[in-house]
Amino acid sequence: xxxxxxxxxxxxxxxxxxxxxxxxxxxxxxxxxxxxxxxxxxxxxxxxxxxxxxxxxxxxxxxxxxxxxxxxxxxxxxxxxxxxxxxxxxxxxxxxxxxxxxxxxxxxxxxxxxxxxxxxxxxxxxxxxxxxxxxxxxxxxxxxxxxxxxxxxxxxxxxxxxxxxxxxxxxxxxxxxxxxxxxxxxxxxxxxxxxxxxxxxxxxxxx
Length: 207
Ligand SMILES: NC(=O)c1ccc[n+]([C@@H]2O[C@H](COP(=O)([O-])OP(=O)(O)OC[C@H]3O[C@@H](n4cnc5c(N)ncnc54)[C@H](OP(=O)(O)O)[C@@H]3O)[C@@H](O)[C@H]2O)c1
Hints:
The chain is built from seven helices and eight strands, in the order E-H-E-H-E-E-H-E-H-E-H-E-H-E-H. Helix 3 packs parallel to helix 4. The longest helix is centred in the C-terminal third of the chain and has 16 residues, at 176-191. The mean pLDDT is 98. The radius of gyration is 16 Å and the shape is globular. 36% of the residues lie in helices and 17% in strands. The protein has helices spanning 11-22, 34-44, 68-78, 109-116, 132-135, 150-162, 176-191; strands at 3-7, 26-30, 49-50, 61-64, 86-89, 122-126, 142-147, 166-169. The site of NADP nicotinamide-adenine-dinucleotide phosphate (NAP) has 25 residues, from helix 1 and helix 3. The site of NADP nicotinamide-adenine-dinucleotide phosphate has 25 residues, from helix 1 and helix 3.
C-alpha cells in the first residue's frame, strides 16, 4: 500500500485517486479551493482525505495533476514541504494545437520540476502517456516512467502495480522529454491513424 497525495482536482486527479483507492492505497487530494477539495474527497469516499494547499502533503508520493504551466510554480511554492517526497509529474506541455511541446529542446517539465524541488525530493515522470478517460475504464495499461532515483522509481512502480497497471521504466529523468514527446505522438495518432482517443500506448514483448 502506498500513501498518495494528489495536487489538483481535475480529471486526472479524480481518476488517479479513484484507481488508487481501489488499489487499497491511502489518498489525499489537495486543491487551491479547500471546499472543492473536501467535496472531491467526500465524493471519492473510501477514506480519501482533503489536504491543505501549501502544507506538507501526507503522502510519500505526491502527484502533480495540474496544467504543465502550474507545475514549476507550484513546486516552488511548496518548497521544503516536498522534502523527501517522490514527486510524480504527469503533465503534457502541449502547444495550443497539441502538435508539439512548449518546453525548450533538450529539456522537459519533469526536469524543470526537479530543479525547482528540494534536493531531497525525487522526481518521476509517469502517467502522461495515459489518457484519463482510458485510465477510468479500468483496463490493463502500460505506464511509462522516467527518473534518476532508483528507489523513487521503485515506489512509483509499486503504486502503478497496485492499481492494476504495468510500469515500464524508460530510464533516467532526461527520458522525460521523450515521454512528453510521446504525449504529442498520442494526439497525432488520435487525430490520424487511430481516429479517436480511445486507445493506449503499450509495449508488446516478444517471447
Ligand atoms: N486529461 C488527460 O487525459 C491527461 C492525460 C495525461 C496527462 N495529463 C496531464 O495531467 C494534468 C492534469 O490534467 P487534467 O486533464 O486533470 O486537467 P484539468 O481537468 O483541467 O485539472 C487541472 C487541475 O489543476 C488545478 N490547478 C491548476 N493550477 C493549480 C495550482 N497552481 N495549484 C493547485 N491546483 C492547480 C486545477 O484547479 P482548480 O480545480 O482550482 O481549477 C484543476 O483542478 C495536465 O498537466 C495534463 O497535461 C492529462
